[in-house]
């Protein structure tokens, strides 16, 4: 799932707002969070 897909599926209207809120909640950007939790 892309950050844009997650953005719209969770009710955010803009990607920048989603990224800001995501980082505030997790202390990671969506990209670094995804990279850290991908199966290797």
UniProtKB/TrEMBL annotation:
Residues 1-36 form the HTH araC/xylS-type domain. Keywords: Transcription, Transcription regulation. It comes from the Bacteria. GO terms for molecular function: DNA-binding transcription factor activity; sequence-specific DNA binding. InterPro entries: Homeodomain-like_sf, HTH_AraC. This is Helix-turn-helix, AraC type.
């Amino acid at each position: 799932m892309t950050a844009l897909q997650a953005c719209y599926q969770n009710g955010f209207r803009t990607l920048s707002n989603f990224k800001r809120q995501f980082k505030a909640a997790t202390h990671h950007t969506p990209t670094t969070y995804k990279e850290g939790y991908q199966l290797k």
